[in-house]
Specification:
With 58 residues, the protein is mostly loops. The chain has no helices and two strands.
Length: 58
């Protein structure tokens, strides 16, 4: 398990896949916050623009 301010390096295990929750079995769901704000975790793996979260429901 990772804790606030933990540093990770290439090859470090940052999680595991489990069954259950709100996604399909075998799916990976990442949530990353930077300075208290959620960011697109893919930006940590590749050169992608920041995601913009829109309201869920009207």
């Amino acid at each position: 398990m990772l804790f606030r301010s933990d540093r990770v390096r290439a090859g470090d295990i940052v999680g595991t896949i489990a069954v259950g929750g709100h996604v399909m079995a075998g799916a990976l769901h990442l949530g990353v916050r930077l300075h208290g704000e959620y960011i697109n975790p893919l930006t940590l793996f590749a050169d992608l623009p920041r995601a913009v979260l829109l309201p869920c429901c009207r």
